[in-house]
Amino acid sequence: MANQTASLIEENQQLKAKIQELEDALAKKSAQHRVKITTMSSEVVDSNPYSRLMALKRMGIVKNYEDIRHYTVAIVGVGGVGSVTAEMLTRCGIGKLILFDYDKVELANMNRLFFRPDQSGMSKVEASEATLRDINPDVEFETHNYNITKVDKYDHFVGRIKSGGLQGKPVDLVLSCVDNFEARMAINMACNEINQMWIESGVSENAVSGHIQVVIPGQTSCFACAPPLVVADNIDEKTLKREGVCAASLPTTMGIVAGFLVQNTLKHLLQFGSVTHYLGYNAMKDYFPTMALKPNPHCDDSFCLIRQEEYQQYLAENPPEAESEDPTEDVVHESNEWGITLVDETPESEKKEELDPDLAKGLARAYDMPSVEQVRILVKDSTESQQETEEPVSLEELQSRLKGL
Amino acid sequence: MVDEATKRTLAAIPLLKTRAGPRDKDQWVGRLKEELVSLIKYVENNKKQDNDWFRLESNKEGTRWFGKCWYVHNLLKYEFDVEFDIPVTYPGTAPEIALPELDGKTAKMYRGGKICLTDHFKPLWARNVPKFGIAHAMALGLGPWLAVEIPDLVEKGIIVHKEKTSSE
Q: Catalytic center at which residues (chain B)?
């Protein structure tokens, strides 16, 4: 009996010590959470999380770095690219992030960055918010755990883009980090409708190429203007083994694409450098094609056509002063006593490319849209079936007929 | 890219005319009628050719579809629940057909049991907007997928025949 009591007392003491140890560890951990910072300081001290970012101002790269706090970015898809994108923007001190994703963290995601094994089973948006808030409590977060392509979620999604920004303003930029065509088309449709600039990003299913594409409705090609662009990866389709797999992924390619995406986001928001409409990445050859993309005047998206018209009208009313986008100042010669003029010696064949830009080297469309005749060969127009649809049958009757088969 | 038999099957499925998605209120009702006519015809064709392989029905709005599909391998019938939503971008993008009970059992699937389609499916769909509908997605997407994946999954012992599902 006495023995038993002694061992219980001993166990009690051990447990108490363990509790104290854990409490100390916890206290130390929560002490590491930094408090919110009201204004970004450029003071170079170890304790200032923004000193190296504000140094961009001192170096003359960015004029107004602290303005980043006024901006809201929506990230659709918080996977291999989206989560890293969110982390970069969080560390940069963005004002607000709105995250959309309907997926859960899985161990199969661990070949990519950001998520940790202990987050398995959590929703990606919930896990992201927890980590990001810890990294930078100054950022405001809003998360939505749903599929934006669903009829009952889409309107809410559009609503948050329109008024989810700081002080109820529209978001400043939408970043597409999704992994499927349907979601890209849904973002495209929404952004054309509400005239919202967005940047598309993607990594190929074989993980060795990627791209970003800036979409300014009416000004640049929208995602429905033409079949998606693909970076030619110099891999013969026939030698690419697809047996037993849907998609491969690498943390490297995804990290690079996220880097491109955030770099251009920062350049756009803080107005430094220039933003390319399209930037590709071919990992096999370390090749980075870039090009400008004009909208298709016959685009299937009716709102794209409206935005194009608006932009043309804007251009007519505000003719661009100088063609050159390069901010380097032109040398002005006040007098020209010899009457020297520059003669454009570009051959006609090359000039054409500017009006109707051919794809940059190393880029191709995912597929061609064939002529109407080719479609007819594939699927014969059956006239009898078209007559059937003319029958005045009610929807309910058809639904019950299908059910009754 | 598409074999002769599939081409013949496709040619017999009525084409659709209305380019309207679930957000286009009145026009969507018209599109939905075309979908139903096309699906009814396709199922009837399948029955006639002794190749009946799925049943579908939808909610009242026609935005959510569900039913059964089956595949006969070595004289045994394997049946699965099939479901999909009509995305807001429909018919610009095809529905993403899912077989939830096979989720995690094959690599040829995306999360939630959405089937992994061939490289040919999306271009083919894109070229035939708005003429292709749900029936075409079944014929070009799910049909060929089952034909490749089910025998493989059975051989590997990942799916086993359930006695109860063999009676029709």
A: 116
Residues of A in contact with B41 (CB under 8 A): 385, 388
Q: Do A388 and B37 touch (CB under 8 A)?
A: yes
A320: Cβ contacts below 8 Å, ≥ 6 apart: none
Q: Which residue in the set A186, A381, A401 is minimally distant from B15, CB to CB?
A: A381
Confirm or reject CATH 3.40.50.300 for domain A71-317, answering yes or no.
Answer: no
Question: Would you please indicate which residues of A are annotated as catalytic (active-site) residues?
Answer: 246
Say what the pLDDT of residue A351 is: 43
- Please indicate if any CB of chain B lies within 8 Å of the CB of A367: yes
Print the SS3 string covering chain B.
CCCHHHHHHHHCCCCCCCCCCCCCHHHHHHHHHHHHHHHHHHHHHHHHCCCCCEEEEECCCCCEEEEEEEEEECCEEEEEEEEEECCCCCCCCCCCCECHHHCCCCCCEEHHHEECCCCCHHHHHHHCCCCCCHHHHHHHHHHHHHHHHHHHHHHCCCCCCCHHHHCC
A39-92 pLDDT, tens digit per residue, is 898 888 888 999 999 999 999 999 999 999 999 999 999 999 999 999 999 999
What ranges do the domains of chain B cover? 4-156
Residues of chain B with pLDDT below 70 are 1-2, 163-168
User: Are the Cβ atoms of A182 and B89 closer than 8 angstroms?
Assistant: yes
Rounded to two decimals, the pTM is: 0.84
The active-site residue out of B88, B116, B147, B158 is: B116
Determine contact: A389 vs chain B, CB below 8 A: yes
Query: Which is the CATH superfamily of the domain at B4-156?
Result: Ubiquitin Conjugating Enzyme (3.10.110.10)
- Closest chain A CA to residue B4: A378
Nearest to A379 among B10, B93, B122 (CB): B10
